[in-house]
Amino acid sequence: MTDDLLSLFTNAAQVAADHRATVGARPVQPEIDRVALDNALGGVLPDAPTPPSEVIEQLVAGTAPGIMGTVGPRFFGFVTGGALPAASAADILAVGWDQCAYNEALSPAAAAVERAAGTWLKDLLHLPASASVGFVTGAQATNTVGLAIGRTKVLADAGWDVARDGLAGAPRVRIVASEERHATIDRSAKLLGLGTASIEPVAADANGAIDVARLREVLARDTTAPIIVSLQLGNVNTGACDDLRTAIPLAREHGAWVHVDGAFGLWAAASPRTAHLTDGVELADSWGTDAHKWLNVPYDSGLAFCRDPELHAATMSYSASYLTGSGAAADYVLGDLTAESSRRARGLAVWAALRELGRTGVADLVDQCCELARRMAGRLAAAGATIHNDVVLNQVLVSFRDLARTDAIIEQVQREGTCWVGGTTWRGRRLMRFSVSNADTTEHDIDVSADAILTAAREGTDHCS
Ligand SMILES: *Cc1c(COP(=O)(O)O)cnc(C)c1O
Q1: Which of 180, 237, 244, 386 has the fewest Cβ atoms nearer than 10 Å?
Q2: CATH label, 89-352, candidates 3.50.50.60, 3.40.640.10, 3.40.718.10, 3.60.130.10
Q3: Which residue, among 238, 215, 213, 233, has the nearest Cα to 278 in the 3D structure?
């Protein structure tokens, strides 16, 4: 090797650390130049090798007009979360060590870290201590895993072995879910061969939580078909959480499998101030959440929990002759709980984030984001904006005097660069949507962002009038 690995790694870490150190002082959205990006990064694959240090130099220079400040304190788009220092460094190690978290033989360390972090997570999130945890790519994967296990179970209850016989000729599975479910539930239904037509939507209340009376009606439509009920903690627009304490027993009466999509909302269980929103969560069968959202772990990091570890492994695993005697400590190996076999040791960053924050740190992170979301809502409302949701968690929906200009205002805010917000459609209206999910966001960040947004809203109105 011609290049010194230490200086290569050190340089890469230096670039990343510089980005973190300055991200709060630069426009959240860079001067995006797609042509420059394609010119610098595209073209024909060179015939000859390039020294690693040169490759990284080219990569850093070429990507500059496309690196968003998503990790910074004033990125409020989507629900992204930040990246805690220890979690980021642990991910660098996972890559540097190149550990494969498939089984004990490939990485006893990854297995131990996942066991430890999994135990902490179940405690923190009020899930059964005996549940299994798969370290997957994100909430999309947790929904796919949860619905897959549910499919196995409800069809087995109906006398059908879906793993062996597939879905052709199987009883039709009903998926009962809120009209306000996340769209990834629909994708999971597509991928699992259940089909989106199997989803029976249930009306939601004013803030987007499932209407439990309507759930009862929808469930009662057919009392013989196998049912998966998919509930939600954390509506992606409003933050609303379904009333699990009431909804889950209703689903049970119909022998349903109950999955909870808690991509960010499940973290509310970790704080005494918001845990009431997740009341009854322990009654479900499978749960999903994202570590890369509210726990502030780098992408990609989702957590798929299941009440029944045997069923979890039976649904997701495969067997192969070369795996025999590969050193599983339990009856199942890490890769039996995820759709991937070979994967990065994702648990390292989760372990590090939990260790860095501790129990009170996770609660403080949740509380701080909720408090800052209320602050943002308060400042905008005081200046005449309309808040369209009950800010129960970290999400805020806003409109300004001229409703037709919402998208133009959002674009102006993005271009101006102080902060980054996205848009959404809620109850037929185009609105500005905030998510506060980064540990680095401060009151000052909220205040300067609110000022920038109000300026953009005013400027637009002046030009139009
Ligand atoms: C973000 C989100 C998802 C999808 O998460 P990914 O990590 O992007 O796969 C699913 N459900 C809800 C409620 C979400 O907020």
Answers
A1: 386
A2: 3.40.640.10
A3: 233
**Dihedral angle over CA of 24, 30, 36, 40, nearest 10:** 20
Angle between helices 5-22 and 52-63 (to 10 degrees): 20
Domain segments of the chain as ranges: 89-352
What digits encode the pLDDT tens for the residues 196-226?
A: 999 999 999 999 999 999 999 999 999 899 9
Where do the DSSP E strands lie in 203-337?
Answer: 227-232, 257-261, 286-290, 302-306
Instruction: Supply the residue whose CA is at minimum distance from atom 1 of ligand 1.
Output: 263
Nearest 5°: phi and psi at 133? -135, 120
What's the start-to-end Cα distance of the chain, in Å?
A: 66
Characterize the bridge pairing of strands 257-261 and 286-290: parallel
Name the 3-class secondary structure at 31. Answer: coil
Distance 354 CA to ligand 1 centre (A): 20
Q: In a mutational test of the pocket of ligand 1, which residue from 135, 144, 182 has the highest number of ligand atoms less than 8 Å from its CB?
A: 182
The residue to mutate among 181, 233, 236, having the most atoms of ligand 1 within 8 angstroms of its beta carbon, is 236
pLDDT 10s digits, 62-104: 999 999 999 999 999 999 999 999 999 999 999 999 999 999 9
CA 465 to chain CA mean position, Å: 41
Q: Is the pLDDT of residue 453 over 80?
A: yes
Rounded distance, CA 389 to CA 424, Å?
13
Q: Positive or negative CA dihedral for 335, 339, 340, 343?
A: negative
Instruction: Catalogue the long-range contacts made by 190-196 (C-beta closer than 8 Å, 24 or more residues apart).
Output: 191/144, 192/144, 192/147, 192/148, 192/151, 193/166, 193/167, 194/147, 194/151, 194/167
Q: Environment class of residue 354 by beta-carbon count within 10 Å: exposed (0-12), middle (13-18) or buried (19+)?
A: buried
Closest CA to 269 of 366, 347, 139: 366
**Structure-token match 């990507």, residue found:** 63
**How many angstroms separate the CA atoms of 282 and 288, rounded?**
13
